[in-house]
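INTERNAL AUDIT FORM
Audit reference: QA-55
Scope: verify that the stored structure record matches its stored sequence.
Auditor: D.O.
Record contents follow.
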Amino acid sequence: MSGITRTGRSTWRNWAGNVTARPVREVSPASARELADAVRQAAGDGLRVKAVGTGHSFTATAATDGVLIRPDLLTGIREIDRTAMTVTVEAGTPLKRLNAALAREGLSLTNMGDIMDQTVAGATSTGTHGTGRESASIAAQIKALELVTADGSLLTCSEKENPEIFAAARIGLGALGVIAAITFAVEPVFLLTAREEPMTFDKVTAEFDALFAENEHFEFYWFPHTGNCNTKRNNRSAGPAAPPGQISGWIEDELLSNGVFQLACSLGRAAPVTIPAIAKISSRALSARTYTDIPFKVFTSPRRVRFVEMEYALPREAAVGALREVKAMIERSPLRVSFPVEVRTAPADDIALSTASGRETAYIAVHLYRGTPYQSYFTAVERIMTSHGGRPHWGKVHTRDAEYFAGVYPRFGEFTALRDRLDPERLFGNDYLRRVLGD
């Protein structure tokens, strides 16, 4: 199959609808060679190039007025190597298709985020992560990648080939080139037992270190305007599989988490005064439950209520204090916050621009329903996060710039120097990258 090129300024929008772009043309390459051709042609035409995934980023990291590369045809598993325990997959493959295909082969990623609609390249390039005591982000599971650079070269990067590029390009923000394929480490499929349990804010924050230490994957959600949280512990299990019942699973995952929540958010947006009362009801609606299933069915869940999000990575020891500051800020402000605040963890990793680079990390994520003014809430939260040396998620709303990042990422200069070498003319640049990486 050959690629598709569309000219004319159609508008591209991200999932949340807060970012738009009007490229000169859109290209859907069907192979790494066609991708390289598209990059070379754009350079020849004096146009900048950006690849998009499914638009799940809330920042303009993929926006361009030049050539927009769509991933629709660059999909599928290229190879499964059971000796090396790796899978090589085309860059545009959605995570949900990868997860389902691996499960059919009796394989799994070690850890994943809680949404699986993104493409593998989009998710890894922005640092998408789940929660884990020892297992890190999706990008940390990359063993090799193919990168089309500004001169149209196709580079294979791993710990052995082009290791200095590999060290940075696993979370490359689209600034070093366009990813054509990714090789992930995999393992034999396993079972996880999830234990979801309501807990008070005071109890979960007081016991956070113990809950983190005792569980392979721990996370919790605090409902603003209440003292209530919902906790989730995922741990490996010998089985047997015991997935949620069809009806009870639908009630929790669809009716409460999506259907009723959508109505509650719509009501809250129309009448913010109702939000605290709705939060108290919502935070009590979710009951304790335990279930056991294969990883992607436990780690991920459907997200049909559209929102805007900001997330900061903090040193793990700073997280509880920062969260208490957020709670106090909301309580003394006129803000009405309809979405829970999410807290997750990650071990330190060795990727230059990973939010967990070189330090044990906890994440605090804040959300608001799409269409709700979010600036005052996010600004107040961001002020708290930056006071703790926080690193914002690259694909989520933030106002930080290159000067700030140079202070919170010890290897920031290593990344920008590599960018200067690989893309001196900024073929892959845009306004967002100019802000966060500098000129």
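Auditor finding: record pair retrieved intact. The first strand starts at residue 4 and ends at 7.
Action required: none
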